[in-house]
User: What shape does this take?
Amino acid sequence: MKDLSIKSWVDYPVNTDFPIQNIPFGTFRTNIGEDVRAGSRIGDWIIDLSEMASLGYFDALEGDISVFFESTLNSFIAQGKEFTQAVRFRIIEVFSIENHDLQYNADHKSRILFSLEEVQMMMPIDIGDYTDFYSSIEHATNVGKMFRDANNALLPNWKHLPVAYHGRSSSIVVSGTPIHRPVGQIRPDDALPPILAPTRLMDFELEMAFIIGKKTALGKHIRVDDAEDYIFGMLIFNDLSARDIQRWEYVPLGPFLSKNFGSIVSPWIVTLEALAPFRVEGPKQEAPILPYLQSSGNRNFDINLEVYLESEGQKQTKISQSNHRYLYWNMAQQLAHHTINGCNINVGDLYASGTISGPSEDSFGSMLELSWGGKKPIILDNGDERCFILDNDTIVIKAFAQNAELRIGFGECITKILPAIYEI
Ligand code: CA
Assistant: This one.
């Protein structure tokens, strides 16, 4: 945004993820049990967009502002970027220090602003379809080495198309939702038949995801250079994975029960427009890439990604730091590929990047890679060791873009792993 100089009358720390230049979108309810509605955030304050609508702050906008009273953002973002950006700019205007309307109205402020302690963040989107890509060359190479063949880690198609599978949306939940360790078929001894047991190789996957803001009709495809018109914004995505279940089940159709027992999103969707100052080139793609996948411009984002593990009663240990810029296939290429056959997409669909591993060992985006298949334990700050996630461990993923003038962040994506509940 050109308006780096805009200051807000709301006080916030200099290193907040949510300065006035961010203005993300989410849904929330207050602790006193009111309905779920749309919100935004500035510093450590939640902005109630339904109250802003009720009190007339959006009256000059052309669009349906009753959508802020709905419990998900689907109807809001379905109105298109012209409207959603107008809303975003109007919020920035109302909260800028030059604007006195809300700033000097104590009654309105008490109705519109909530502290973090007063609210519970909710699932922001009713997700229709979910697709998980596999777009980090470092991750695909590492997994290929461990699961298949160290000399031919990447399969022949990998550099020609963004590999993906259709996932399941029913088990995608918002940050803060605990997940029980899944039970499934595993085969710890290749000489014996499989057994049913709680996974022994519980893992996270460090990913980002994007939300579709504009639908297509069946039979139409999206040109790579138009693809970002269809993307409303991004969030953090933790694609929990049970590696022993995955290893046994994934041939030949890919992951199934090893991946659909719980994936976690951060509560705030950050718009592509807010992230624009952080656009960067992606990795150099080796020829030949077919023309429908050839994208121009800077399509990756310089978003720092951090993973922390917190064992019960202990401080968090940072166990990985990666960056969105490492993704080999960018979001525009993913969407162009997804629709080249005429597959239709819908508002509220979620497309995940795949695990974003970097080139160095401390930038790997899963425990599988960090502990190299369980051979090299990760040492926590208190001296404990982990190869995979234990019961009552909490995984926290943070994402933020930052330069000398501006920080735009996503907050946190948190989940605690609880013991298995299936009785065998
Ligand atoms: Ca994944």
Q: What stands out?
A: The chain has two domains: 26-122, 130-418. Residues 6 and 96 are 6 Å apart (CA to CA).
